[in-house]
């Protein structure tokens, strides 16, 4: 691992994802979480302060990057919630079927190598009646912006630790076996190539993508 990826990138991600514009976005979805929560892409723990402690029993913090978990320790210590680390990739979630009430993803789908597989795993661990809450950046609706996203994405992915600026989050969510039931979109203030946001909620579709139950 390069010194940049080990020491610089984690703190850069923590800083950017902690900006006020992103904090306001998190507030639109995180307080809706309830019960046993699986947070995919826990990162530096920026969502912990926004959970409703009266509604959430436990947070499974899935985060494969040890560097991010190190930064998250302060947020975990301050939180009154029970937080348990899952230091694994999202493509193979080590939880039983139907074991969580909420899956939360904030600024995560852009980075997961096999996003449909991770979403399929998320669907597997959700209990009946459970929901996926999401807040993501990605492909812009404007053709000119989208063309530039495609152009810069290879370099962006290298500099930003695997992050992609050109993924269409709702399509990925549906490919993972979900039906999007709430969806809002907007450009956040800032650089338009990386500021188009999607957020909302999804529920498991009647059958997984690509087959029947």
Number of strands: 7
CATH homology superfamily name:
Vaccinia Virus protein VP39
User: In what order do the strands lie side by side in the largest sheet?
Assistant: 3-2-1-4-5-7-6
Distance between the termini: 41 Å
Give, in order, the helices and strands.
Answer: HHEEHEEHEHHEE
Q: What's the CATH topology label?
A: Rossmann fold
Contiguous uncertain segments of 5+ residues: 208-213
Overall shape: globular
- Our count of helices gives 6
Can you summarize the main beta sheet?
7 strands, mixed
Mean of residue pLDDT values: 95
Q: What is the C-alpha radius of gyration, as a whole number of Å? A: 16 Å
By secondary-structure content and strand pairing, the structural class works out as: alpha/beta
How many domains would you count in the coordinates? 1
CATH-derived architecture: 3-Layer(aba) Sandwich
Question: Which features does this protein show?
Answer:
globular, 33% helix, disordered C terminus, alpha/beta, 213 residues, Rossmann fold, 7 strands
Give a verbal description of the structure.
There is one protein chain. The chain is an alpha/beta fold and 213 residues long. It has a single domain (3-204), classed as Vaccinia Virus protein VP39 (Rossmann fold, 3-Layer(aba) Sandwich), CATH 3.40.50. It contains 6 helices and 7 strands; from the N terminus they run ααββαββαβααββ. It has a 7-stranded mixed β-sheet. α4 (115-125) packs across α6. The termini are far apart. 37% of the residues are buried.
